[in-house]
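quick q for whoever's on today - can somebody do inverse folding on this one?? i tried earlier but teh output was garbage lol. tokens:
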């Protein structure tokens, strides 16, 4: 990590801490990762503020968007973020560095009862790329180094299907700056092929039932006719709702109970907060993510 990056993270952490202690009473801080543009993330998430206040007695709920996943990971590690939904690899990064920092308490469930999704590798439909074999020698874009579907799982699962390492198979690899930007980069030719995520349920032509492709379709940012799917990973556990252990135990339970009840008390808010395609939250724990923790340890180290 560069010195500038370290200084930036320290500055963000200090500003978050100062904001929290400037208030009278409990302030809850929700981190929003960089998988989607900041304005849309805030719009989808703000509805949980009032229910959280009512459930916990908090005087304020603050939202902290980050341009990348690592900003929220560092906030959760440092106790300057209290709540976040992130991919399993991001949780694994926290678990590997500080096992007592957060607990994964809930996970969103699809209509069929599953709690998983897939890496979806896509290319432009007019690129001549039709399958995994035809991506050889091309430029591969990953979403973010802390993304489960956009980086970790492809690094674990792709080589077996490629028959050689990613470095040997592709002419160039890099990062797209989050899932939304990665897909836009594929569309504008920055990347020949890129990794994003989707439920794998429903129709590819609609962006599946949930995931980044469906979010972009619903926002009018993407016409699925412009893309072709060239690879789909094995199933990945949906990312957890994490709650910081810096909160008092009774507050953690109140936060957990509020989110568990949200699909019944305000399904529209639940649907927005989870980006659509899910029916409810179910309980989660470390055991659900052990395979991802082990994979991150082997591929990234922390």
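ok took a stab at it. sequence:
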């Amino acid at each position: 990590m560069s010195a500038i990056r370290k200084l930036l993270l320290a500055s963000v952490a200090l500003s978050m801490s100062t904001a929290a202690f400037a208030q009278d009473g409990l302030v809850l801080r929700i981190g929003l990762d960089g998988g989607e543009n900041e304005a849309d993330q805030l719009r989808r998430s703000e509805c949980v503020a009032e229910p959280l206040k009512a459930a916990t007695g908090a005087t304020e709920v603050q939202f902290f968007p980050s341009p990348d996943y690592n900003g929220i990971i560092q906030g959760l590690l440092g106790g300057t973020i209290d709540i976040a939904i992130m991919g399993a690899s991001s949780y694994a990064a926290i678990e590997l560095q500080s096992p007592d920092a957060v607990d994964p308490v809930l996970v969103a469930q699809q209509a069929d009862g599953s709690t998983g999704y897939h890496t979806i590798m896509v290319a432009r439909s007019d690129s001549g790329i039709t399958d995994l074999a035809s991506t050889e020698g091309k430029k591969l874009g990953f979403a973010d180094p802390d993304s489960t579907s956009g980086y970790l799982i492809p690094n674990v699962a792709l080589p077996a299907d490629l028959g050689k390492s990613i470095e040997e198979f592709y002419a160039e690899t890099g990062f797209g700056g989050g899932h939304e930007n990665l897909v836009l980069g594929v569309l504008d030719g920055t990347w020949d092929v890129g990794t994003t995520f989707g439920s794998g349920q429903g129709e590819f032509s609609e962006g599946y039932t949930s995931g980044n492709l469906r979010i972009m379709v619903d926002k009018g940012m993407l016409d699925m006719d412009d893309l072709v799917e060239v690879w789909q990973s094995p199933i990945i556990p949906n990312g957890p709702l994490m709650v910081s252990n810096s909160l008092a135990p009774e507050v953690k339970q109140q936060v957990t109970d509020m989110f568990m009840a949200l699909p019944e008390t305000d399904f529209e808010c639940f649907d927005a907060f989870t980006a659509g395609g899910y029916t409810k939250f179910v309980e989660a724990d470390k055991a659900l993510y052990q395979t991802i923790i082990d994979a991150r340890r082997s591929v990234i180290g922390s």
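fwiw Residues 30 and 83 are 5 Å apart (CA to CA). also The first strand starts at residue 27 and ends at 32. so keep that in mind when u check it
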